[in-house]
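hey so i finally got around to running both of the ones u sent me last week. sorry it took forever, my laptop kept dying halfway thru and i had to restart like 3 times lol. anyway pasting them below in the order u listed, first the sequence line then the structure token line for each. didnt double check formatting much so if smth looks off just lmk and ill redo it

first one:
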Amino acid sequence: MADQLDLRGLDRIERYVMGLGEIAYEPLMNEWEHILQEDNRRSAMAGLDGSGQPLQPVTYRPKPVKRVNYTILRNNNLTSSHYRSLSGPPLAPRGERSRIVTNFRTASAELSDGRWTAIGAWEDVLSVHGVSFLRYHFTGSGNLPVRDLRGIRPNVKVEARRTLREFLLQYFRYLRGK
């Protein structure tokens, strides 16, 4: 007599798997965008790079200045005397009002192969002459130290996995009730 394979219960698993293609991932992507925003803000304020390591500190500020010119220049730049008077972390001299916090943008989308992605990037962080300059900090061009903010910090990966797990569990509970 041939062995028989008991397939009872697989119909439920098949329903779950088939339902995965129908999931509306937008709520999860919105959550991931929020995670990216918050991580960027917290990391900027803590002076951390894209891998969660401390950025090389600045050595020329804060510096007591007798008279500070508080004029804001084109593209939201500061005068050098104003910049030297501030005590925020590297690349965030104005703290939460710094451009690496205020000009961080997120987006999410479904890719052509059915996968989803959430991204974050800095927009319009420009010099007085309109040059996007963060890339020079990221690579340490010229005499700049490397201060690379790009990347996904370990805590973000943990948080993204946690929210994905919660999202899928809620979806499976929904399917079970169908």
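and the second one:
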Amino acid sequence: MAQRPLSVLVVEDHPTIARQVVDFLEGLQWQPDHAATGALAIELATREPYDVVLLDLNLPDLDGLEVCRAIKAHAPRNQYWLRQNGIAPGATSKRVIDADPADGTTVSWTEAGNGEQRVALATIENGGHTWPGADPFNVGLPIGATTRDVDANEVMWEFFSRHRTATSAAHR
């Protein structure tokens, strides 16, 4: 059975970054949509069954956390994605990751699967949106501690590697 392309909502207000991410995902034969504002992201994410939402926290109209809360309020605790993938909501595993207690953050990881698909929700408590090893400030404004409990780049690459289509694997 051929795996269907992933649908991805890219929420990013910086046009160059957004274009690069969308182009990359299209090159993998996935189906990305783009929202440059929080309002549009909420509208799209509550209307469309996205497999993945890549969400920038520093948006021009709404704080990314507000956007995340609004999407979660529409489908509390990833129930929307569980339903879209035919995964029973009771079959979830939960764990807390605090690999570096000194960074002041923790990651709550909730995951469920049905043998074919998996859905994961990572929530970073007290953390900002910068990447591990990056400067913890964005345009000179503090946005929260950078978590060292998980490497977001590694998590995303592992996810995308598990969801390669025959076409996307050929583009490696």
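quick thing i noticed on the 2nd:
Residues 7-170 form a domain with the Rossmann fold fold (CATH 3.40.50.2300).
anyway thats it, ttyl
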